[in-house]
Design brief:
- It contains 13 helices and 15 strands.
- By secondary structure, the protein is α/β, with parallel strands linked by helices.
- It folds into 2 domains: about 270 residues, Aminopeptidase (3-Layer(aba) Sandwich), CATH 3.40.630.10; about 180 residues, Glucose Oxidase, domain 1.
- The strands form 2 sheets. An 8-stranded mixed beta sheet has the order 3-2-9-5-6-7-8-4, with helices on one face. Strands 1-10-12-11-13-15-14 form a 7-stranded mixed beta sheet, with helices on both faces.
- Strand 6, helix 6 and strand 7 form a beta-alpha-beta unit.
- Helix 2 packs across helix 8, helix 2 packs antiparallel against helix 13 and helix 8 crosses helix 13.
Length: about 500
């Protein structure tokens, strides 16, 4: 038997060979993890170094401008984004139509207090509200009703009145630190824009509240109310904006307008002293027939499971006082950038990643509802949707929308994004954006929780312009969206749905 002497050099060579075999085995055992990590690094670098977010956002905001659903500018934005997807090489860029009952265009709005003293009002008509019949004059009445029964006390007392129905909004003091973005009470009601209003909290914004608001407006019309006014709840003379036509794009029963918080405050203080008379002149143009509007859609086809889909979305429509930069040009251009980067890198995700820029979000998530209806046969194969829709601020977390069954896998999906400063996932609930349409259809619908970045002060106002955009934060948002979509597309299976609700037992006799 021959004895071999093992030298130190020999040991080093042997250990090196073993280590090399171990490394090769490890690479073979977990290629997916390494591939995803490598892809995420490429995605983050591509968006950081070569993004086109700000140039695209400036064009959308300044050259195209405000994009009210049904307006010519929104169709221009649809056509432009479709072409941008095509220019980037993203597959099947196209427009998907749906229909609204009436278009609505703002023309002019003026108003003033005429008694007991003269004060001009900063004012703008609600969307889908009718015009006044020229200059109208009325006395102000404060109506406190919160139910149909409460309205009975005003029967026969509102003829010729201009109605207000809330105390002035209280805005946070100047210099107050920004709140934690995970604590902001997002919701789909403009009544929640102001951090606090005196008196009892407003009713929950849901179907019951909408029905009451419609019934109250009809009551006002029947009683001869001239118009209603709402406090904008914003600082520095800014106006707010929302619509009166509901999800059906009906024309409201009576004229209605927002006034600045400063104007509303004067009205309120004078009303405490006695009668206040106003003059209003609201002029709007209303279409007399239904029109088609569109969602912009494009995709990167999946290499292995092309019929399974991951959705990245934002809404392209806006209100019309500003140029719709942070609500929601920012989200739309983040989605467009995610598509550009993923296509340029040629990563070939296993599942299809579909990019959807919805319209009609501001009037009740109508574009995403129309998308769900048009794609009902695909719904079982949609893994999840992620929506970017709270302005220019950094994405600090992703809400699971109580999809508890997805937490463990989603933690792994976002793990590579911790380097961007992403916080823990949250279960925080939010209605009022397009992810809710997917949730209602039983699909996990997630949304980006963002730093507020003055969103509530400027959104829906004339100050929602390109000047509000924060480039670094939008770059981070695009990185999060693109990497999230790719990682979800690479998962072994579709994300699990929420458990179906237990059947309700029939009532006993």
């Amino acid at each position: 038997m021959k004895v071999r002497r093992v030298t130190a050099l020999g040991l080093m060579v042997m250990f090196g060979m073993v280590a090399g075999r171990t490394a090769v085995h490890a690479q073979q055992a977990a290629p997916a993890k390494d591939a995803i990590a490598e892809a995420d690094e490429k995605i983050l670098a591509e968006i950081h170094d070569h993004n086109e977010i700000m140039s695209n956002l400036e064009y959308l905001s300044d050259v195209i401008g405000a994009r009210l659903t049904g307006a010519e500018n929104l169709k221009k934005a649809n056509d432009w984004t479709r072409q941008k997807f095509a220019d980037y090489g993203v597959a099947n860029p196209h427009l998907e139509p749906w229909t609204i009952a009436h278009t609505w265009t703002r023309v002019a709005a003026t108003g003033q207090i005429v008694s007991p003293s003269v004060h001009p009002l900063t004012i703008a008509s609600y969307a889908w509200a009718p015009s006044t019949n020229g200059v109208v004059r009325g006395h102000v009445v404060y109506v406190t009703a919160r139910s149909l029964d409460d309205l009975a006390q005003y029967k026969g007392k509102l003829k010729g009145a201009i109605v207000i129905s809330a105390e002035p909004a209280l805005l946070p003091p100047a210099g107050q630190p920004a709140p934690d973005p995970q604590d902001i009470p997002y919701g789909d009601s403009f009544l929640l824009v102001a951090p606090h209003r005196p008196g009892p909290p407003p009713p929950a914004f849901g179907p019951g509240f909408r029905q009451f608001m419609q019934a109250r407006t009809e009551f006002f019309k029947n009683e001869g109310v001239v118009a209603t006014l709402t406090d904008s709840g914003k600082p520095d003379g800014l106006l707010n904006m929302t619509g009166m036509g509901g999800r059906n794009y009906d024309i409201a029963a009576i004229p209605a307008a927002f006034v600045s918080s400063e104007s509303y405050g004067i009205i309120w203080r004078l009303l405490q002293r006695g009668q206040v008379d106003l003059e209003l002149n609201l002029t709007n143009s209303i279409g007399d027939k239904p029109v088609e509007v569109y969602n912009t859609v494009a995709e990167i086809r999946g290499s292995e499971k092309p019929d399974e889909i991951v959705v990245l979305g934002a809404h392209l429509d806006s209100w019309d006082l500003g140029t719709g930069t942070t609500d929601n040009g920012t989200g739309s251009m983040v989605v467009l950038e995610a598509a550009r980067a993923l296509q340029k890198l040629g990563l070939q995700p296993k599942r299809t990643i579909r990019f959807v820029l919805f319209s009609g979000e501001e009037q009740g998530l109508n574009g995403s509802r129309a998308y769900i209806a048009a794609h009902k046969d695909e719904l079982p194969k949609i893994s999840a949707a992620l929506i970017h829709d709270t302005g220019t601020g950094k994405v600090v977390s992703i809400s699971l929308m109580r999809n508890y069954q997805d937490r463990e896998v989603m933690e792994k999906v976002v793990a590579p994004l911790r380097s961007l400063g992403l916080l823990e996932l949250t279960e925080r609930w939010m209605t009022g954006s397009d992810h809710a349409s997917f949730e209602e259809a039983g699909i996990p619908g997630f949304f980006c929780v963002q730093d507020p970045a003055q969103y509530f002060e400027t959104h829906h106002s004339q100050a929602d312009t390109f000047d509000q955009a924060h480039e670094a934060d939008l770059v981070e948002g695009a990185q999060v969206m693109a990497a999230w979509a790719y990682n979800v597309a690479q998962l072994p299976d579709l994300l699990p749905r929420k458990p179906a609700p237990a059947p309700t037992a029939p009532a006993g006799n």
